[in-house]
Design goal:
4 strands; four-stranded mixed β-sheet; alpha+beta; 59% helix
Length: 196
């Protein structure tokens, strides 16, 4: 429990710093915050979160290249691909990477290379659990940032904070419905379920 609290507190602090660094012009034009979850070097033991955002200007610019305005708005491939911070990155956030490993170890979902060599199938199950629980920490942090009013305080209004991968599917819609107030993610979740 204590390691989860340390990891979530770190993620919360990094998100607040990242959002606070967005310029006034971009704050006025952004409509979504991106928490892109990816495994560093394709190693599921090393998930990280790249924090970025997208703007209405970018949607307008990309709509002619997309299948329509909804794809330009919700498909990460059309977004700015900016990076305010990479949380839990091995080089960019050594404290976060260390907290992530300590958390996974206490949760019983960490394994060594030797463990993987000894029982590959068992470590595959741990990979899935680690990803799900790491995303679960992010969901809880985003939920708390909305509930406490931090998102509104920093950005001047409620904005959806989408936790996602490169691909969208039902699980992505569900985790974002859990993390954000319903009205903020309804359009995104509907797009994922019909087009994503």
């Amino acid at each position: 429990m204590r390691q989860t609290m340390k990891l979530s507190t770190h993620l919360r602090c990094e998100l607040i710093k990242a959002l606070s660094s967005i310029s006034a012009d971009d704050r006025a034009d952004l409509y979504v915050i991106s928490l892109w979850v990816q495994d560093l070097d394709d190693d599921p033991r090393r998930p990280s979160i790249t924090v970025g955002f997208n703007t209405e200007r970018q949607v307008a610019e990309c709509t002619p290249r997309a299948s329509g305005p909804n794809e330009a708005r919700w498909n990460f491939a059309f977004w700015l691909q900016n990076s305010l911070v990479e949380v839990c990155g091995e080089r960019s956030d050594t404290l976060g990477a260390s907290l992530r490993q300590a958390w996974a170890t206490v949760r019983g979902i960490w394994y060594s290379d030797e463990d993987q060599d000894r029982d590959f199938e068992a470590t595959l199950k741990l990979d899935e659990a680690l990803t799900d629980e790491f995303v679960g920490v992010a969901v809880q942090v985003v939920k708390e940032l909305h509930a406490s009013g931090e998102i509104t305080r920093i950005l001047g209004r409620p904005v959806p904070v989408l936790i996602h991968e490169l691909e969208y599917y039902e699980k992505i819609a569900l985790q974002n419905e859990a993390a954000n107030p319903p009205a903020l993610v309804e359009a995104f979740a509907n797009w994922v379920r019909t087009e994503g």
